[in-house]
Specification:
Shape: globular
CATH architecture of the domain at 31-104: Single Sheet
Bound molecules: zinc ion
Strand order of the largest sheet: 1-5-4-3-2
Structural class: mainly beta
Largest sheet: 5 strands, antiparallel
Length: about 120
């Protein structure tokens, strides 16, 4: 009888420590954004964000950009402080209530694995 079976048990460490290697992009200028969906209002957008509708993560309000013909309400991924660069915004044209949701096309990164994050009051 061999006892080699016990060797199959390998300790899988949960810490993700390998830095992802991104292909070197020559021009990393402004973030590119992809259209996600239409949204009926800023209130609705905030509601969707609260319900983790987008990427199943929380987003923190970043600011409103007032442009010539529209307002952009930008939110950052809640892991932004840890280094995540993902952001999302709702674009509402002047004199309109409904808008369009756009999300940056970069990937989420630097999310902590444990969910014992103390929420900021
Ligand atoms: Zn993120």
């Amino acid at each position: 009888m061999s006892s080699s079976a016990s060797l199959l048990e390998n300790n899988f460490n949960d810490t993700v420590n390998d830095a992802e290697e991104f292909p070197k992009t020559k021009q990393s200028k402004a973030k590119a954004y992809d259209f996600v969906e239409d949204c009926e209002s800023l209130e609705e957008f905030k509601k969707l964000i609260k319900n983790l509708h987008f990427d199943n993560v929380s987003w923190n309000f970043h600011g409103t950009n007032k442009l010539a013909d529209c307002d952009k309400h930008t939110f950052d991924c809640k892991f932004q402080k840890k280094g995540c660069k993902k952001s999302i915004y709702l674009k509402i044209k002047n004199d309109e209530i409904n808008g369009s949701v756009y999300i940056s096309d970069n990937e989420h990164s630097n999310h902590s694995n444990d969910e014992t994050v103390t929420s900021v009051a």
